Amino acid sequence: xxxxxxxxxxxxxxxxxxxxxxxxxxxxxxxxxxxxxxxxxxxxxxxxxxxxxxxxxxxxxxxxxxxxxxxxxxxxxxxxxxxxxxxxxxxxxxxxxxxxxxxxxxxxxxxxxxxxxxxxxxxxxxxxxxxxxxxxxxxxxxxxxxxxxxxxxxxxxxxxxxxxxxxxxxxxxxxxxxxx
Length: 180
Description:
CATH architecture: 3-Layer(aba) Sandwich
Number of strands: 6
Structural class: alpha+beta
Largest sheet: 6 strands, mixed
């Protein structure tokens, strides 16, 4: 019998395996464009450049201007950048995603964390996505940032997390890898 975590990793690998290359700009995406109350909404595997280039998502670039990532988190991400990956679920319609996803990318930029190790998945208003990834990863709220090490989830931050600072919480989550 296949372990559920292994099945999860295999499923995600099948979905994005041919999509990842050395540059996030050449990553192939698999998403749908939906409308809700005359607002554009995405559902599926997307990437940062879609959010940066589409004026419907101007919140991404605008909100990236505010705040700075936690310094310890930047250090941990930089030191461990080849040891883990992140799966981020968010809703382009969701105010929490609009606030926190740009903060997450501040951390990615400041630490030099490889964007090819970030998988960004957009959910619709029912928090559903393509290929049932929302069910596989048990997504109930967005954004959700899942840290993967050696094919296994080592933790996740849901919405604002327990500390109110997504970057700090993610940095603390990966810090245990320094001990290995």
